[in-house]
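WARN  no MSA supplied for this record, continuing single-sequence
INFO  ligand: 3-methyl-2-oxobutanoic acid
INFO  echoing inputs
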Amino acid sequence: MSVHKEIKRVTTHTLQEFKEKGIKISMLTAYDFSMARIIDTGGLDVILVGDSASNVMAGHETTLPITLEQMIYHAASVVRGVTRALVVVDLPFGYYQGNSRLALESAIRIMKEAGAHAVKLEGGGEIRESVERILTAGIPVMGHLGLTPQSIYKFGTYTVRAKEEIEAKKLLEDALLLQKSGCFAIVLEKIPAKLATAVSKELLIPTIGIGAGGGTDGQVLVSHDMLGITKEFKPRFLRRYLNLAEQIENAVKQYVDDVKSKNFPNKDEQY
Ligand code: KIV
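INFO  complex generated
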């Protein structure tokens, strides 16, 4: 679609316009300059510097260990590679929950030191005060409901959330509350497609789904998953567009062979 070529810089207003016009929003994660530059050139609307960097970049089992300083380092690298997409950065675990002053300080550091365009926080009613205080500084906030990986030890599993009516009802209430507080969009992670569609229809602001079906206003994936760099992660919702891990392994094998066999470098590859 040619829509992306007409837009110089995606803003939160662009996303609202997309929702109103029924244009789907594309979002992927990035954690470094080189990947951000490539995916931004691909015409993506939103780049999320996710705290999934804790898993993908640092090899941790959960998103909990990543620090604000590490998120700022990743975010600043991404911002330097982006000219078109809106760059949203996750506030990491321990830097906003139960303390709205800390939340505002953390968000300001992300905006000031990394040059980000917005922040994302996980949770509903319980983080309302943090969301509203961050918004007083003019910082756009994206919400995140459903499977919120920073609460993995509360859930105990990464399975689909809000299958039961009581949790589904709470999710819709939280979504409406985040919208009322002033969030510009909400990520819906790993919830039944029917619920995600209903929430998306109910809200005026855009929803961006991951494992939430096609009824949301946009889609997000972890770039390393959709590019096939993380081989072991195979949830049902993931579509792989490349098998990069395999291609990189083959390239490395070829390089090792070339070095060992003295095929590399050849006469043209030297001074
Ligand atoms: O950290 C992350 O990558 C995320 C997406 C999965 C939405 O929050």
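Residues 29, 48, 50-52, 90, 187, 189, 210, 220, 222 surround 3-methyl-2-oxobutanoic acid (CB under 6 Å).
INFO  checksum written, moving to next record
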